Structure prediction request, 520 residues.
Amino acid sequence: MAKLSLMFEERLVKEVPVGSRAIGIGRSPDNDLPVDNLAVSNYHARVYFEAGKLVVEDLDSLNGTFVNDIRIERATLHDGDSIWIGKHHIKVDATGDAPVPWDSGRKTNAPRINETMVLDTKVRRDMLQQAAAMGERTQFAAGRLKVPTMVVLSGKTDQREYALTNKLTVIGKSGLATVRLKGWFKPAMAAQINQRDDGYYIVAGDKIPTVNSAPISGPVRLNDGDLIEICGVRLNFIFRE
Amino acid sequence: MRIKSGGVTDVGRVRSNNEDCYRIVPEMGLFVLSDGMGGEAHGEIASAMAVETVVKHCLEGENNPAAPIFGETQPGWSAHTKRLASAVHLANRCIFESAAQNPEQQGMGATVTAAWITGHELSLAHVGDSRAYILRAGALQQLTSDHSLVAEQVRRGILTAAQADESDMQSVLLRALGTNPQIEVDAEDHLVFPKDVLLLCSDGLTRMIMEPEIAGALQSEPDSAKAAARLVDLANERGGADNTTVIVVHTDTETRNWFSWLRFGQRKHSNGNGHAGGK
Prediction:
């Protein structure tokens, strides 16, 4: 199995195996490879298997991710490569192979696979357990307790802070909006924040919001600490414990 | 909220029978879609039973708010959401009991996705892998989470979304109506905004067409029934491997105020779809 070793100068800081789950790298402590350095973004990059290949992907980090001295947005990794993030580097050991596809050898369980079928509870429990074992430790317990919150830094709104508890959050003047904008000439629906399986995304409405001063061109995934500006209102997206 | 809706169901290009079923009750703003399974004609029986039971129970609830509520409900849900969840519990029981009494129906089951719009409130209840989406300001957002094995694996981080799309385990459901005497129902409350488009669809659509294309088709066709037909046609063009059923619901404000009249004039209102002039 492939292995990532986080190094500072020539000292080993942490080592993690790469399973079928993506390995997160960044300053936030909930990453699999936390890198404690101000030059590193909260969620800086991730490494995962795609179609049998080990891939590193930069998560729009401020200072960039480098593979063997070349700045990358996304690159396939080979055995012996080094990923450079700030002053740290991560050695890639890919001597092991890609993880065994999860469904291999299990096809006998599902004889008519193109017909919809339901797993009975026992088979379901077994399959999920097996699946969980493949995915190594699931980090959910820690991640789930955090409440995504919008804190109003400046501008006129009906509250100073909003916990995002719904899948759909609308920012606007409309009486139905969660984050209610006040004042003249504010649009009914300025922007929206949608919860998807992998996080919270900000999407334009009648106006185009900026995230960390950059106008968005499509749905943008929000990271802890992001600054959103819309219709003169500045909001800070954070995860509250 | 003014509501316009349309639905289409199609057998597809591969299967010989259509096990999907849907029902629109415009007076109530109730939309129910179900995808049956279980070989022979029994998938059809299960999905029809699911749709009928849900509609009937909701209708009963409207006429008599004191009608019994089945299954677990959460205190935060609105009365309509509780009713809808109760209807899904009842549908599960009906299918399960029918399968238990008729040995030839053994193994039949169905998914169900039901939406109920009252005023600005949208109640959703669902079991299985039929989906509900909302298109708001051009962004398509999935409101339901599939109760399928691959979706669960994606949520747990075991598969990527791309791997899930290619998996041959896509048809394996973790929850469906009619397989257990008790079932867990996902239900939610949402608010609908004017100009939202609600989409309910069976997996025949979402396995054939990617989400951006669905969003594009919904945006380019302002007529609900035509949009639904367009999506089904697209799924069939891509192979139509499964039955495809689509319900499209357009919402708009009830009345127009003097300000929008001033801004847009009368002509635009008369044809109702936002295109001034033309045919």
Notes: The two ends of chain A are 34 Å apart (CA to CA).
